[in-house]
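User: Predict the structure for this protein chain, please.
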Amino acid sequence: MHIVHLTNAYAPASGGVRTVVHALGAGYRERGHRFTLAVPAERAGVDDEPWGTRLRIAGPRVPGTDGYRLLVDRRAVLRALDDLAPDRVEVSDRFTLRAVGGWARTRGVQAVMLAHERLDGLVESLAAVPGPVARALTDRHNRRWAAAFDAVVVTSPVAALEFDRIAVPTVRVPLGVDLELFTPARRTRPLDPDDVVLVLCSRLSPEKEPAVAVETLRLLRAEGVPARLVVLGDGPEAASLARRARGLPVTFTGFVPDRTAVADLLADADVVLAPGPLETFGLAALEAMACGTPVVAARGSAVEALTAQAGGPPGAVDAAGFAEAVRALVSGAGAASGARAAARAVAEQLGWAATVDRMLALHGVPTTVRAGA
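Assistant: Here is the predicted structure, written as structure tokens:
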């Protein structure tokens, strides 16, 4: 079977969706299928990768997004699909690629849309639109997009909420984690260290609320907790976040392309902060948990459900709540050890193999869905 995946959320410094499509491609290939990923780029071209084939289609750059581009040339996209002749199509987008659903339908090709974000929350937070208006706009948009595809895939109940509201059925496919790369064995610091290392691993954009991490550190330092913060990631909020962090022990690494380096940093953290209230899964949080590192999540986000499975603290609504949760998690070596073991145990149920199996089952390929591995 030839599976073609199209997305706009793919750039030199992109994170979650990039990780997802590479993992899906590798899993499909391992099971004997062909995988092509179509993405926007400065120049058209083809790259052979271990996880599949990357087809670059020329697309304009989106200002203020640190390298993201858009597939806006509809004819070029549809010509590429004609040339690729896929058996199945996957689309990780709700902005420019709705015509792909129509193309697939006229050719009898099954097409699924993967909803990685809460669009209603993004409209409300980024466009400063009142909640009721944001929901009305999103509902109309989601009805049109869902009608163009054979199935809507979501990663969590939180991601499904905006589709539940308009009675659009969804298929839940949780994401996974590389359990061999992200492992507690990478930790080099003692469980009862002299200082407390906090990590924020996130795109630094407004909807992720990265400033909460800096304010959490400020509160902990004021209370005498010897904490420091490492920020992994880049984005439009990077400069303002650096200004906010002046005088505090904060290290900004920028985007870290080396996944091994990311795993090392997550394993050596004492607590990872996930302040984004709109997270629909929380891939970086799951990677931290696979390293045995406990996570503090924003209340109402999908990450809160992951941390709850590990017996973690309730989701926080502000920096004070995050600081309180951090103190509880690092209160002693025994507590830290237990939290780390519980985090790893949850992650072990979410290996990428199960994600790939669920997607292939959706595509009509008989599989045995596995919890871990």
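The mean pLDDT is 94.
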